[in-house]
Specification:
The protein is of the alpha+beta class. It folds into two domains: 4-31; 38-183, lipopolysaccharide transport protein A fold (Sandwich). Helix content is 17%, strand content 51%. It has a six-stranded antiparallel barrel. The radius of gyration is 29 Å and the shape is elongated.
């Protein structure tokens, strides 16, 4: 009996099955991995300046950033070197700057981190600066808070504390705990 045609048939069958198996394996890995794709940003902006308007059509706040990166998986937005300015209708404006920032998908708050500095822009504040490592800011409520250590400096005062609550509209500051201060009149 001639085994040639049988071996050729078996070889063709093996090649067909192997080819089919390889084809299915390559199709499984060919498409984008949804988990990996979700962790990638869908857009970024360099040199951002955003002005948010209030219901009255007037500027409510401005946000500047060296770069903004948006992630579609959870809707978060990351900011590099953010600079926030609450535009006041009466009284001084407040400014917040930091090394980096973050906003959730609903944009209801801005979280600042890495060398956060808060300043009032009027002349009567006598150089008032608040420093901390992290701060949460709710622009719609004009409220900021942190549980991190803070340092408040002006030309004649130094205060330190753990945590603060800051009402930016009423210019009202509450220090939470471990408050220490020094006043040296000039």
């Amino acid at each position: 009996m001639n085994r040639g045609p049988l071996l050729i048939g078996l070889l063709v069958l093996t090649l067909a099955l192997g080819s089919s198996w390889l084809s299915r394996r390559s199709e499984e890995g060919a498409g984008p991995n949804p988990e990996a794709a979700a962790a990638l940003p869908d857009y970024f902006i360099k040199g951002l300046t955003l002005t948010a308007m209030g219901a009255d059509g007037q500027p409510q706040y401005r946000l500047h950033a060296a770069a903004l990166t948006h992630y579609p998986d959870d809707g978060r937005t990351e900011l590099q070197a953010p600079h926030f300015e609450l535009v006041a209708t009466a009284g001084p404006a407040w400014q917040v700057e930091a090394g980096r920032g973050w906003m959730p998908a609903d944009r209801s708050e801005i979280r600042f981190a890495d060398g956060v500095r808060i300043r009032r822009t009027d002349d009567t504040a006598d150089g008032l600066t608040i420093q901390t490592e992290r701060l949460a800011l709710w622009p719609a409520r004009a409220h900021a808070a942190t549980d991190a250590p803070i340092r408040i400096e002006s030309s004649d005062t130094l205060l330190t504390a753990d945590g603060l609550q800051l009402d930016l509209t009423r210019r009202y500051l509450t220090l939470d705990a471990n408050i220490r201060g020094r006043y040296e009149p000039k």
